[in-house]
Amino acid sequence: MKSRYIASLSLAIMFIGFIVTRWWLPENDWTMLLESGFEAGLVGGIADWFAVTALFRHPFGIPIPHTSLLLKNRDKIVNSLISAMETELLNKESISRKLKELKLFKGIASGIVGLLSRRSVRVGVLRFAQSSIEQVPLEKLSVKIQELGADYVRKQDIVPIVDKLTDKFAYDGWDEKALDFVLEQGKEWVKKRETEQFFGRLAHSKMEEMQVGGFMGFAVQAFVGFMSPEKLGPIIQGMLLSSIKELSIPGNPNRQKLLDEVKKHALALSANEELMAQLKNWLQTSIESVQLERFIHLRLEELRQLLLDKLEDECLNGGRVLVRGFRFLTEAAKGKEELLDRWEQSILSFMVNWIEKNHYRIGLLVRDNLNKMDDQALVSMLEQKIGNDLQWIRVNGAVCGFIVGVILYFF
User: Fold this and answer.
1) CA 408/CA 39 separation, integer angstroms
2) Is the pTM of this model over 0.85?
């Protein structure tokens, strides 16, 4: 708008100067010199105004031949623009060549170093992470995790899983560890005073309930009358502790027999179809339970709060954890230059191939955007982009016409 105002002002000056020197000033050599200059400047300004206007529209709306050139040649201009972009400005060979020469990881690393050198950037990244974590809907996430687990169990055949677990239990020494754990826990329970009393009372009551006739019944009744719960308890306790000690000795025949039975029953678990069906049903019911969903939600809440507290501490510390993390990554990458080079070349090759396959879309995009614009919008866009420079042609035409008019006056 400023350049158009100046161009119109230059034309107005030439017009006013011509009128004043032609009819208002006294006739002399200086007046005739200025009149010649203003006259030529007026002609040059009008001619350039006509030329510039003819590019965009019909002057005064009159369909003069060879005017409104841009609209008449719209298709040619669009095709030329697309051709220039595809073959000169953005041709795929030059883009591919530049990409192949690009040091992708070095450029990224350099940019990250520049960003992490500023405390405000580091703290901003951590604050953004905090905000993102706070916005995570844990209720929906816990339900989704539960649904995925239930769906996995529903579709999964648990027999191979049970086979793997029982094989590991039987052949990796877990059967002995399990037996030792059970024996140790049983030993601790049997050693208790209340356990001793419990065994004494239980044995004495069961012996009193025995119904045996004849001499054997007389002997049993005599034994019951002689033994009290306080006497029976230590005896049974001692027998059990002795048995547990015996079973805890590696290589003991009874221990080995017990382990063999445990292995045999463990390895046969997967063959029990009814048991496998019950196990799968139990797993599915347990995963779909409300209690498990609450458990998952609480654990996620704890994890989120832990992360938020850690991020808050790092924000107060200036976000140095990001610097340490980036330094750790760069140190880890030093010994893997060959691997990083392969990754970089793979990424760049993918980008090059993608550009070669989709380069034609640049022209389609430009054409589609231009086709969406009506004539008035297209002219307005072109005037905004190049119209300001074209207005200076009018100024130059007026000024040059004035100078040429002065020069011609001398001839």
Assistant:
1) 11
2) no
